[in-house]
Each structure stands twice: as C-alpha cells, then as structure tokens.
Amino acid sequence: MTNALMASLQPELNPDFPDIAPGDTVRVHQRIVEGRNERIQVFQGVVIAMRGGKTAGATYTVRRTGAHGVGVERTFPIYSNTVEKVEVLRKARVRRAQLYYLRDRQGKSARLREKRFVKA
Amino acid sequence: MRGILGKKVGMTQLFDKSGAVIPVTIIEAGPCYVTQVKTEETDGYNAVQLGYEVVPERKLTKGQRGHLQKAGAPLLRRLREIRYDETPSLSVGDVVKADIFAEGDLVDVTGVSKGRGFAGAVKRHGFAGGPKTHGQSDRHRATGSRGAGTTPGHTFPGTRAPGQYGAARTTVQNLRVALVDPERNLIAVRGAIPGSRGSLVIVRESVKALKKAKRAK
Questions:
Q1: Which residues does chain A have within 8 Å of residue B11's beta carbon, measured at their own beta carbons?
Q2: Whole-complex ipTM
Q3: Which of A38, A46, B31, B171 is deepest in the core (most CB within 10 A)?
Q4: With contact defined as beta carbons under 8 Å apart, do B82 and B181 qualify?
Q5: What does the pLDDT look like over A8-61, one tens digit per residue?
C-alpha cells in the first residue's frame, strides 16, 4: 500500500521530452517569469551528466562555452515544469557516463565524435 | 484542534507553480475513527481518542475489541489521543479523513525518531571532537572536559554526554501542507518528519499558528 502510494506520486514525463544521453547537444527552452512578463530563455550546450535515473529528483547537466571561453553549466530537473521544450541537435559517441573531462578542455580537444541519428 | 493519525511513507519532491522544487514527506493519513471522546466533566480534560490501521481479529485482545465495538469502529491497531482546549466537536463513531487539512495549512507532526542506540557526544550533541593530528591517540571523538575539579566536585546534572539517542517522541512544528488527497488518504508536508518509513505519526494543527490566530482576534 505504501509503495503504491509512493508510485502514484511518480511525476509524469512530458510526452515530448526527447531521449537524451550524455554527449548530446541540446537546446533547452525554459519559461522565465520576470515580474509580470514571461519569456522563453534558450540554453544550448552539451549534456555532460544525467543523475537519478527516472526518480522524482532526476536531473541533467548542460554545459556550454560562453563569451571569452567561460564555461557555463546548468542543471535542469527532468520533470521541471518550467522547461517548455528540449531539442536534440546532435548526438555523439562517448565512452563514459559523465563527461566532466570536458571542463578541462577547450577548442579542438573539446570536440565529440558525432553519431548519426534521425532528428525527431 | 484538528488532528489525524497516519503512517510515514517516505520523501519525494514536487514542483510548485514557479518551477521551484519542494521537498515533501508523504504521509498516509487516516481514515481514523473516533473511539472515545473525553471531556472536562467525565475525565478531567478534553481529548478525542482516534483509532487507525485496521488489523485482523487475532491481533487484538478481547479488551481492545470490546472498546472498539462500543465505539462502533472496525478493528484498529493504533489508538492515540488528541488534546483539545475546548470541548471536542467530534463524537464517537465519526470518521476523520485527510481532508481536515488543506494545502497551505501549517501542521505539527509528532512521531518516534529513529533510534541511534548509545551514541557518542559528537553524533548526539554535535561536539567537535578532538584534533585529528598532532599526536592525538584515542581523542578524536572524545567529549573533553565535563566540568571543573575539586570544586564543585561533581558533574553538573544535564551536562551533555554520550547516551541513548533517538527512539524518542519528537515533534516538528510549523510544516506547511503541500498536498492533500482524501481519496488516496494522502497528506504531503514540506520538509522532513521524525521516524522511519512506516512508523506512526500524528498530524495536528500547528499550535504556533493557532496561538497567532488567537492573538490576531
């Protein structure tokens, strides 16, 4: 009974949420409320880690290189209701689950080997 | 004083409208049956006795069964009293469900905290312990001094020391109710509550909020 109650609270994944994996280049569209205004902020980068499987607290981390080569990472909950849409732009062949080594690299050495895939 | 008995189910997280994460504890609350009402005249104090958790007949003694039968309640394992300041508005036979609370209410949750056995002062009272280096041996988690010497000649009562930690009745006050679903007998409160999963908890109206409301009036 208690397990059933817990299971009934499992959040439902947005049906449009794509299958993402570490190494993917994604574009995350997030709804931002500023005072009375609402706008969509786009964050594009490489998924460098996913934590928590399908549990309620599961997250993924997106890294992008900003101005002057400054790395910016943002972590989003996969069930977040502020994320409007996630687009997968590229998939890459990677050999580990967490791509934290990308933090120490820039330019040519920070490239990933692309994997062909059919864009949804 | 609204109150209900329940079982701690576990913790999870929800999102509020702005997308912020709320850590919540899920409580399977009720249905509870009023098995006895105590009043100032009959018992010297005001309280409602609630029963919770239906069990097979063999789990209860004849005395317990008789008590429940008198109240017209099913066979229940847990009986707890909720104290009232005024004469209780509930009467024997009433059923209390999770819908006595609503989203946004403040509640106090009482339970028996997890037992940690005979614990040292570092775990039990947050002592810092001793230095890790500089020639220390056996002093890493020591309590340090317990007081002065020949004067006063004894350790003062109440000095924090190692001992039994946990497995004690604990109340966490002013938790906000994040979700109520009477159909599933579910109450979710923001934050953590005492006890292990599956242990009995009492959810009551927040006494601090009640006091504040009374003062405002």
A1: none
A2: 0.74
A3: A46
A4: no
A5: 777 777 777 888 999 999 999 999 888 888 899 999 999 999 998 888 889 999
